[in-house]
Every structure is written in C-alpha cells, then in structure tokens.
Amino acid sequence: MPVKIANEKTKTNLIAQWGLNLDEIEDLPERLTKFHQGYHAWMRTCTRDTSRFGLDYISGLLRMKTKRNINNIARTVGVPEQNMQQFISDSPWSGYDLISVLQQDISAHPQFQAESVLLIDESADEKAGNTVLVPGGNITAV
Question: What is the mean pLDDT of the chain?
Fold first, then answer.
C-alpha cells in the first residue's frame, strides 16, 4: 500500500522528523521480515520455535514512541500478552548465542570497523521518576 502524504510541507516535516525517505517506507515491513529471517534460527530449539514472537517484538518496538513494555508491545502487534512475556522471559533458546551472532554481523560492516560504537539504549526515554533499576541495585539520577 503506497504512503500518501497530504502536501509537500507535511512530507518535508516527516522526512526531517524521521530521517527516512518516504518513498522507501513502503517496503519496510518486507525489509524487517528479511532481517528477522537472518536470525530466526537462533530463536528455535529442537522442540520449540518461538521466532515469530521475535519478529512481533522488534516490530512493536519500532512502531512505539513511548511506554515500550512487554504488555504494550504485545497489544501493538496483536499477540497475547502472555505469549510475548513468555518469549522474553522463559524462552529456552540461548540469548547469548543470538547476541554473539548479532555482534559478529554488526562488526562485519565497514562503517563499524574502526573508531565507532553502536549503542542501543533507551535510557534517554522519559522516565516517571528519578530512579533507574540496574543489575546490582538502584541508581538515583543527580
């Protein structure tokens, strides 16, 4: 389905806001699916394949502006909240193995070969209070 923009000013504002050429938006779902297919094998075991929820999880994260929690992600993509929660917390596949493969793939890109960092962090999202939960205890913002 083509993306329709009301006028040039709106189109310019959207490009400035998101940094995407709107002509490229049409194939984003297919590109996300193709990206996921490269990693779905790492979300399976001999007896279970939960990889579908991996695609749902990533899709939900990318579509949400704020309040990215498991229940809201599940609602956004239309899957049962319990299934999404179980995918994140109880899946039998090795998260370490998947992260290792992602790290290898990212490091293979020329733009990440020297003097570069790829940081994936949502700590800049607005928080409700001044306390952030971290492994090992709480940190209070100054």
Answer: 75
DSSP string, 9-33: HHHHHHHHHH---GGGGGGHHHHHH
42 and 17 housed in the same domain? no
Identity of residue 93: W
Report the domain count for the chain.
2
Q: What is the DSSP letter of 90?
A: T
pLDDT on residue 75 = 93
- Owner of token pair 């949400």: 64
Query: What's phi and psi for 28, nearest 5 deg?
Result: -60, -40
The residue range of the domain holding 4 is 1-26
pLDDT tens-digit map of 1-13: 344 555 666 666 6
Answer yes or no: do 86 and 65 share one domain.
yes
Of residues 62, 7, 58, 2, the one with CA closest to residue 26: 2
